[in-house]
Write a structure and sequence with these properties.
alpha/beta; 36% helix; globular
């Protein structure tokens, strides 16, 4: 019977000074966690690693003061599956959420997500298999072992902003093997944003189906509709996070007015949030994109339930593209047979993007055969993993 002997956390600052329409990431950090087991292989303990995904601040206080002590105080057998050989992520989640009221998501959801995902990494390592294999088996699926569709997310606002810089950035992603891209809007005038869109489209020969735009929740209804009208002639892949993520009425009214696909969900952190989106947000089956992120929403256990809500209401998991742009969500997209996921090949280091060992061609990415999520293969992240357990 495996036991947990230590749980460690560390706040890691994101590199770079990029900004979207609302947020500068120059001060942002991420919670990196390690779950250390008593299983020893090759003279070292088997350790599960994870982090809370990109886009929120680190949750060190919540982890240290509430959630980690609950896990360490739990009876070891209470965290195991029925066979008593592997950890049960649902039991882990229930333990870290003991004495927490319903609602009040946000940072708490991300802290729980980091811990829960670390146990998925640990279980896969105990079975010496990639995380996507363990995830697929858990859900009774084959998994997309051939890889999934991945788009390169970038096009942020930089201090030295220019349309030429944006074009060069996307040309660099194209050389890496990406042929679909996403960029930011709403942080400049509409005229400037339209010029930036046209610069990005020049990289894909004017094919709007290979470019998405993201307003990061900036717009009120009036501005959302003005942008929708302005970008409609480009026939873009999707129009993302248009207004406040909980303003389902705004989302619905834009969907009624805008013929192209819309995308949202990265800032919805619970099953009830997703239920409200599918009931009241005007999402159109077979067209619109769901972007919930397990690392920000209590982990994979909650995310699987979100997919079930989508499917119960007539939506297809192939329209799910998790936000985050990192290895953990790549494994999740492969294991759960989702439409694809985001990639951050040029921003948000040391977490964004994938190691060079991942197969990438024509925007299809396949994880390596490393056990777990393979975070140790990411050169930029490896020093932080070593520091975490030093």
């Amino acid at each position: 019977m495996a036991k947990i002997v230590a749980i460690k956390e560390l706040s890691v600052r994101l590199q770079g000074e990029v900004a979207n329409a609302l947020v500068s990431f120059a001060e942002h950090d991420i919670s990196l966690v390690a779950v250390v087991s008593d299983v020893v292989r090759n003279g070292k303990p088997v350790i599960g690693y994870a982090f809370d995904s990109i886009g929120r601040y680190a949750q060190g206080g919540i982890l240290r003061d509430r959630m980690i002590p609950r896990l360490l105080a739990a009876e070891p057998a209470s965290l195991l599956d029925e066979a008593g050989t592997r950890f049960d992520p649902l039991k882990v989640l229930r333990t870290v959420m003991r004495n927490e009221k319903p609602g009040g998501h946000g940072d708490r959801a991300a802290a729980a997500g980091a811990l829960e995902l670390a146990f998925w990494d640990l279980n896969a390592k105990l079975d010496d298999e990639p995380a996507h294999v363990a995830i697929a088996r858990h859900c009774g699926r084959r998994g997309k072992t051939e890889g999934v569709d991945v788009y390169a997310a970038g096009g942020y606002y930089y201090p030295e902003e220019s349309t030429e810089r944006l074009k060069q950035e996307f040309e660099g992603y194209a050389r890496l093997g990406f042929n679909a891209f996403k960029m930011k809007i709403g942080g400049a005038s509409m005229a400037t944003d339209l010029a930036r869109i046209e610069a990005a489209l020049s990289v894909v020969d004017g094919d709007g189906a290979r470019l998405s735009v993201d307003a990061n929740g900036r717009f009120d209804l009036k501005m959302a509709l003005e942008y929708a009208n302005a970008i409609a002639p480009y026939h873009l892949r999707w129009y993302e996070e248009i207004g406040d993520p909980l303003d389902f009425d705004l989302n619905r009214r834009v969907a009624e007015a805008y013929a192209g696909p819309i995308a949202t969900g990265e800032n919805l952190f619970s099953v009830p949030d997703v239920k409200n989106l599918v009931l009241f947000g005007g999402m159109r089956a077979g067209k619109d994109i769901f972007q919930m992120d397990p690392g920000l929403s209590y982990g994979l256990t909650e995310y699987i339930r979100m997919l079930e809500v989508m499917e119960q209401h007539g939506f297809d998991r192939r329209n799910a593209y998790p936000h985050g742009g990192h290895l953990i969500n790549l494994h999740i997209a492969v294991g759960l047979e989702l439409g694809g996921c985001e990639a951050y090949p040029g921003v948000f280091q040391p977490f964004g993007g994938y190691p060079k060992e991942c197969a990438l061609q024509n925007s299809t990415v396949r994880p390596t055969d490393a056990a777990g999520f393979g975070l140790e293969q990411k050169a930029e992240l490896r020093p932080w993993l070593e520091r975490l357990i030093a």
